[in-house]
Amino acid sequence: MKAKNFRRLTGVKKETFKKMIEIVKEAHRVKKARGGRKNKLSVEEMVLMTLEYLREYRTYFHIGENHGISESYAYKIIKWVEDVLIKDGTFALPGRKALQKSDVEYEVILIDATETPAERPKKTENAMVRK
């Protein structure tokens, strides 16, 4: 894939993606040294899946379906990759709490668009008189 299209798809440059893969591969190697099951996905697929989630905020169900894994396994992989990249310190992924602590004040306007019953005229003999 061309660099421009790759950036449009993932939100990062190919060089950044390669650096992410190096970091996650090292963490994956350490994790596998302690034992565990074999992963269904390669490290590249894990990072790509995480970038898809961060870029598009699709549901774990949809991401899992695209990669042939369960929704819960997609969640587990994405959270693990995020944690690895955050702990490394090379990349800055602000958490939800960081966004809540921002100095930006939001003004919220609510519009009540609920349905209300319409008053209709009563059906009477006088209204139905035909000429």
Keyphrases for this structure?
131 residues; mainly alpha
Written description of the protein model:
- With 131 residues, this protein is mostly helical.
- The protein has one domain (3-94).
- It has helices spanning 3-10, 14-33, 43-56, 60-67, 71-88, 96-100.
- α2 packs across α3 (43-56), α3 (43-56) crosses α5 and α4 packs across α5 (71-88).
- The N and C termini lie far apart (77 Å).
- The model has no long low-confidence stretch (mean pLDDT 80).
The structural domain count equals 1
Number of helices: 6
What's the mean pLDDT score? 80
Radius of gyration in whole Å, from Cα?
26 Å
Instruction: Specify the helix fraction band.
Output: 55-70%
Q: In terms of topology, how is this protein built?
A:
Layout: H1 3-10, H2 14-33, H3 43-56, H4 60-67, H5 71-88, H6 96-100
Task: Please provide a brief summary of the model.
This protein is mostly helical.
